[in-house]
Description:
This protein is α/β, with parallel strands linked by helices. A seven-stranded parallel β-sheet has the order 1-12-6-5-4-2-3, with helices on both faces. Strands 8-7-9-10 form a four-stranded parallel β-sheet, sandwiched between helices. A two-stranded antiparallel ribbon has the order 11-13. β7, α6 and β8 form a beta-alpha-beta unit. α5 runs parallel beside α6. The longest helix has 18 residues. The radius of gyration is 20 Å and the shape is elongated. The protein starts with a strand and ends in a 5-residue tail after the last helix.
Amino acid sequence: MKKFTSVLFVMAMVAAVSIASAYAGEKKVKVGFTLKTVNNPFVISVKNGAAQAAEDLGVDIIITDSQMNSQKQMQDIESFIQQRVDVILIDAMDSQAILPTIDDAVDAGMKIVTEDVRIPDAGEKVLSHIGIDNHAAGAQLAKWLAAKLKAAGKRNVIILAGIPGNEATDSRANGYREVLLNNPDITVLDTRLAGDKREEGLMVMDDMLQRFASIDGVICSNDELALGAISAINEAGRDKDILVCGFDGNKYALEAIKSGAMAATIDHAPYSMGYLAIKTCVKVARNQSVDRLTVMDVEIVEAANVDQIIAKHADEE
């Protein structure tokens, strides 16, 4: 297993130029990259990192939007098979539903790499995965929230989980529950599958605010849910009472932390993830050795370090 930090990312970009030069006389690598959606700031940043890596490395890249639909994602992968890409890079919508299509791709001689969302049951059919340890990061964020609430003499928490079947958000929510449900200083009022969109976070949080008179903290499986929850809290006039945590570190969440509207998020470094995923695809296509699992570092972002994190990602648009 390989750990990947932001310093290593800079080194990887420098190395990418050398790799591109080394392969200048060879056939271009062709990568089909299926994203679960492009209607999300985090995924857009992944896409931008992948596109920059493709440019730096001289890769032909085909990027598709699955529109949060497993059937469309499977159709996109079947299209990649027909186009005879060298590597299929998958940001899975549903880690189980996609398995038969992965079988089809491997049977057709395709090489598979995944990013962000793991597909555990695919086993060795996935040659490499680039992402974070979502369970550990979720537990880390939940411990942070629990400590803040305990220090303030508060305890009542809502968990807004993501989409069922998505390994990444399922793992985050499991990390939240593992910590919070076993903490005697915390009461989990409710856990709700809320989706992944801002409007979904707003709708679910509005319901929670009507059901519970005392809510002290909300921890969400992504930043968009958290931003929606904040909108509902503001509309209810309860913005001084509730600490809201997101996950991903998208630019809108960082702005919300800077303004004081959001308590914390996890810096997930999506641009770096997309960049490294394409770099890995090139190695796979060239039959070079790759790590089966590259776990990228994460960092809790709060008011004390938000300016530093914003500066770190300033050039990633």
